[in-house]
């Protein structure tokens, strides 16, 4: 049976751009672009998981603002539930520790990058809402 994983993702804005990062070259989603975040640990709230993941992955402190949307997606090897939140950096520079690359992208530009499949509804949602 496929496993189910539940993750949180941070939509970090600056001007009219969003911080995007490219995953490492391993696993089913090798080298795909994504919004930073990761798996929720037992006992954590979504907010706590986001704050911890962004500190671990990007060395920065964030504040978690509005909930954006939840995406359910079936990959070849697992089921994903991903909760996306608007976040703001409050201290530290975003420095990639685990990703291959990162870019601040306008929403329209994201379609030129090879994003994880589960991210397409997130990108479409941001485009439609112009948010
Ligand atoms: N953070 C994040 N993960 C995403 C996005 N889109 C998407 O499909 N995912 C998937 C990729 C991973 O399978 C999972 C995130 O968990 P993770 O990054 O902690 O996964 P991982 O397997 O690399 O972590 P680990 O167990 O090796 O520590 O969600 C996204 O936009 N952001």
From TrEMBL:
The keyword Transcription does not apply. Gene3D superfamilies: Nucleoside Triphosphate Pyrophosphohydrolase. Its cofactor is Mg(2+). Residues 2-128 form the Nudix hydrolase domain. InterPro entries: Mutator_MutT (IPR003561), MutT-like (IPR047127), MutY_C (IPR029119), Nudix_hydrolase (IPR020476), NUDIX_hydrolase-like_dom_sf (IPR015797), NUDIX_hydrolase_CS (IPR020084), NUDIX_hydrolase_dom (IPR000086). Mg(2+) binds at residues 37, 57. Its EC number is 3.6.1.55. It is an enzyme of class 3 (hydrolase). GO terms for molecular function: 8-oxo-7,8-dihydrodeoxyguanosine triphosphate pyrophosphatase activity; 8-oxo-7,8-dihydroguanosine triphosphate pyrophosphatase activity; 8-oxo-dGDP phosphatase activity; 8-oxo-GDP phosphatase activity; metal ion binding. It catalyses: 8-oxo-dGTP + H2O = 8-oxo-dGMP + diphosphate + H(+). Keywords: DNA damage, DNA repair, DNA replication, Hydrolase, Magnesium, Metal-binding, Mutator protein. Pfam families: NUDIX_4 (PF14815). Belongs to the Nudix hydrolase family. This is 8-oxo-dGTP diphosphatase.
């Amino acid at each position: 049976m496929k496993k189910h994983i539940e993750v949180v993702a941070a939509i970090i804005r600056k001007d009219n751009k969003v911080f995007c990062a490219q995953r490492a070259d391993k696993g089913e989603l090798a080298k795909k672009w994504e919004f930073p975040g990761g798996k929720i640990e037992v006992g954590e709230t979504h907010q706590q998981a986001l704050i911890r993941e962004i500190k671990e992955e990007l060395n920065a402190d964030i504040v978690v603002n509005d909930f954006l949307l939840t995406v359910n997606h079936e990959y070849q090897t697992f089921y994903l539930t991903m909760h996306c939140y608007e976040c703001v950096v409050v201290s530290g520079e975003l420095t990639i520790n685990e990703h291959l690359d990162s870019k601040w992208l306008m929403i329209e530009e994201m379609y030129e990058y090879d994003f994880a499949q589960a991210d397409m509804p997130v990108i479409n949602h941001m485009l439609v809402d112009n948010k």
